Amino acid sequence: MTTKETKVTARSDLSGVDSADRPHRQRAAPDGTSPTALPSVMLLCGASSLHARKWAVALAERGHRVVAASWIGAEPIDGVDLRVAPGTGQTRHGPWGAVWQLVAAGWWLRRQVREARPDVLHVHSVGMAGLLSLLAPRRPARVVTPWGVDLQSARRSRFRRWVARAALRRCDLVLPTAGSVRTEIVESYRIPAARTRTVSWGVDDRLFALRDTVTPSSVRREFGIPDDATVLFAARTTGPVYRTPEVLRAFAQVAMTRLDLHLVVLTGHRPAEAAAAQAQRRCVTEAQELAERLPGRVTVLDRSLSPEDTFRLMRASEVSISVPRFDQRSCTVLEAAHAGCRLLLADLPPYRELVEDGLVADIVSGPLEAALAEQFLAARPLEPALRERNRRFIETSESWSRQVSVVQECYRRLTADRVEQRRGGVSR
């Protein structure tokens, strides 16, 4: 049985985007060296990821030719040439089956790069994407955005650490979202600091406009949340990584003492990996069982929400909880800050950086379950002056459109450097 790769290009809907914010890709000069042409970009990613799709759409809307090369099946992406590796969704039994699948995906990726001839290959994560990137041709300028989960896995596995190191050392530029992660990349992986830059992913500018249009009482009625409750929103994807079991147990400890508290649990994105999906389902089941034991006190949203609906729920909540085992500069945390929530954050370096930068948040230290229970007992809305302070912080320094412009400038510099290297006969 043979399988065919999938190529899907969806038309981008730019009706809501101001013309000044969506430049068009310009044609190169006859010699192919137009300095004003926008670099073409191939994103090597799991294209079902909300973050990867957001980046692909943002670049396409700004006029870049964007190809998304994915080893995971996904829905079409507006304005993006989506290419999915053959054999997606098929199970290869045994270690040799996995090896064969990897080799086949690697050859497929090499063919996609040669056909598409992107100026930039942007590798989103040093996990599976990082592994596949080792098989890609060297011609395009290469950018890597390491994800926190991959670096955490690399600390526990020699093979994963080797993959991460190899992927990082083969790239021209590394773009972590937190300064602490940049430090780890420089010190632990021996990547020159000049080849790294911290770029936060920020908050979507559309949420800035949405903020003051949300009526919290209407949102609460829509989701069945009591109007007079103090709402604790666990806005991160349900699962062990985000410490959902500890959040549930902490809430159960204080529920009979603080009768006004109401917990909202969001299932979020469904993992593609079977083991991660099973772990998520166990956490969701635990949340549903708690909701049955405490009727009217827990809302379990067993689905994904759009970014806009998630933000609306944040606007209707007093407290947002983010206590993962590891993280970078989380978009969800920044969005909750802009929405006006009191933030309960794990004691992690990227979160401490946010506080040092000026964000108002409560860092939860010590044994997590007991520390969360203590915070829940004291839960209250953030004071208006502090809500406004967080809002100014986000709108001043964490605009998504500004972060996209920074990445665009990185692409331009890298491709210009490549042109100069070729003219000078320098090969990397």
TrEMBL record:
Q: Which Pfam families match?
A: Glyco_transf_4 (PF13439)
UniProt entry keywords in alphabetical sequence = Glycosyltransferase, Transferase
GO molecular function: any one?
Answer: glycosyltransferase activity
SUPFAM superfamilies xrefs = UDP-Glycosyltransferase/glycogen phosphorylase
Q: Which residues form the Glycosyltransferase subfamily 4-like N-terminal domain?
A: 51-205
Enumerate composition-biased segments (Basic and acidic residues): 1-10
Q: Where is this region: Disordered?
A: 1-34
Q: Which InterPro entries match?
A: Glyco_trans_4-like_N (IPR028098)
Family matches, as PANTHER family: BLL3361 PROTEIN (PTHR12526:SF634), GLYCOSYLTRANSFERASE (PTHR12526)
Q: What is this protein called?
A: Glycosyltransferase involved in cell wall bisynthesis
Name the species this protein comes from: Micromonospora chokoriensis
